[in-house]
Write a structure and sequence with these properties.
Helix content: over 70%
Shape: elongated
Strand content: under 5%
Structural class: mainly alpha
Distance between the termini: 43 Å
Amino acid sequence: MLKKDNWSLGIILGLLVPVAIYGLLLLFMKNWGTVDDVLGIYMLKNSTMMLIGIFSNMFVFRYYMINLKYDKTGRGILLATFILAGIFFYENLRF
């Protein structure tokens, strides 16, 4: 199922992988992170965990573009990455 060369698979992978990585990081930080009861601060800030999730698309993108030579799937992953990065910058860099 994951060995197809189409845009929709790339977009789905490009959206699901960062969400899954962010969820795992959030779960890890809530269970084993350093917590301040007053401020609720963890070892990593929320924005840092979001960036790690978005950056994780690089590995999936590289796998599909270099190893499998699936250009359409890679383009879908790249499109989803740009959309997520735009949302990240809009949400975190407002004045």
